[in-house]
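Quick board copy: two proteins, each given as sequence then C-alpha cells.
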Amino acid sequence: MPNSASRATAETAAVSPENEPTPPQVAAAAATFALLASPPRLHLVWLIAHGDYDVGTLAAKSGISIATASQHLAKLRLAGVVTVRRAGRRHLYTVDDPHIVDLVEQIFDHIAPDGTVAPSDPPGAE
C-alpha cells in the first residue's frame, strides 16, 4: 500500500492544465461548499436526498421552525441545489442533481456518528 507522500506525488503528476479547474469552477465549488457549511442546510439537503418532503416535514425532521426551514430552502433553490414541485396543495422538495447526492453521501460516509472523522480503511484491513 503506498504511503500518503507517494500518493500525493502520483496525484500531483496526474494534474495537467487540461483538467485543472477554471477560476469560475473554483468559485462556484467554493460557493456550493459555503452554502452547505450551514448545519441546518446540510441536514435539509441530506433529508431531501433521501426522499421528497414538504417544508413542514423537513422542519420537523431537522428540528427547526417552518419559517427557518423555508428560508434555508429558498437559498438552496436559488443556488440550484434543490428543486420544488407541486403535489396537490403541497410543495415537495427534491434533489435532482446526482452530484449533490454523491457529495452529501460521501461526507457522511467520512464522518462517524460521534462526529469524528471515520477512518478510510476499517481497522486491520492492511
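And the next:
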Amino acid sequence: MGERPVSTDPGHVDSVNVDPLNIDAVNAGDEEYRGPATLCLDDGPVPVEIRMSARFEPIEGRFRWAGRTRPHDMLRERVGAGLRKATIVVPGSPETAVKLSDPDPWGGVRISGTGTPPWFGPVRHGG
C-alpha cells in the first residue's frame, strides 16, 4: 500500500533526524564508557565510578544507554528510599538527565537514559 523500500546501504539514513557525529562516535568504538562521573542530586554532587554502554535504535532514531555505578553506600540508600532522577556529568561532556533504578546485589545503582550518551562530549551542529 504505497510503502517505500528500505535502503540496505549502511550510510543511508532516510526520514530519521539523526546526528551523524553521534553515529560516527559509536562506530568508532565509543559505545562503552568506564570511568569517573558525577551524579548531581538535589542536595549536591556525588562522585562515582561508572560502567555504561550505548546502542543506537534506528527505528526510534535515538540512542539508548545504560550501566551502573560501582558500590556506593549513600547512593544505594537514597535510591532504596525512592530517588529516581538525577543528572550525570562525565568529564568533558555536558550534564545529562539520568534515571536511577534499584540497587544491585553488589551495592551499585543502575543508571539509564535516552538520547546522546553522557560520555559523547558536546554535540556539534552544522558541521
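Board note added afterward: The mean pLDDT is 80.
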